[in-house]
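Data deposition worksheet. Section B asks for the primary sequence of the deposited chain exactly as it was used as input, without tags or linkers unless they were present during the calculation. Section C holds the resulting structure in token form. Section D is free text for depositor observations; keep each observation to a single sentence. Incomplete worksheets are returned to the depositor.
Section A, Depositor: J.P.
Section B:
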Amino acid sequence: MAAEYTIRNMQRCEFDLAVAWAREQGWLQGPYDADCYWQVDPHGFFVGVLYGEIIAVISAVRYDSSYGFMGYYVVKSEFRDRGYGIQLFNHAMAYLGDRIIGGDGVLERVEDYRRQGFVPVYQNARYSTKSQLFDASGEGLRELSTIPAASLLAYDDVHVPAPRHQLLRCLMGQIESRSFGIQENNAVTGYGIIRKCDTGFRIGPLIADTAESAERIYRALAGSIPAGTTVFFDTPLINQNAVDIAQRYGMEHVFSTARIYAHGAPRLPMDHIYSLIGFELG
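Section C:
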């Protein structure tokens, strides 16, 4: 490897380049997501630089001492298969250490990730549809801002490998976003967020104890934006109730990814997880 190739921490302004490259690869991006993602771990974003030019990017955020997630792995096309990407990838892995490491990889690259110690555990799918005006009324359904933050965050903690409080607060505070939850007998039983993205809106996360609650929250979210707007829904395929919602509302399958883990896999109540924040941060 040429001595002129170096790896260093990404600057916040350079993360916008990584987002642009991800968009070019067909990875859905939100106009306000970058600031939220960056806050999770500002030290967990890296660039590969050749003769002063950034040719590769990657994120490897530490959620806590036990869990991390990798994403935004892009190498400029003219520099691929020359060893630059794998050197950056290994640097990101070293930064995360012996944590459980998650990621979402395109299906055709699964065997490559196996060679780096990752194991595919299940598949996620992106679906899309057009929003409609739904009747989403019902007992306990309310704006998420009216639910005590401590109750919401405690509920979310049960459904993720590591707390993501700051990330959730940031997503909920985005302009062009709406969020709803269900609280019954002072207990949170589900919540969801819809936020602006490149070509419409994306729902995520959406977590609920039951399929009925998840569908009520979905209807509230999808019905909160102008009718006819494109809505994206990133769901784990091992949650059949989530797939059923996608099919019931006429969603089209866009593409699938493999959820991969290194150093073991977290045990989560996947039957409660209906839509993800995104493929970049899990």
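Section D:
The chain has a mean pLDDT of 95.
Helices lie at 12-24, 33-40, 84-96, 110-115, 149-157, 165-172, 211-222, 240-248.
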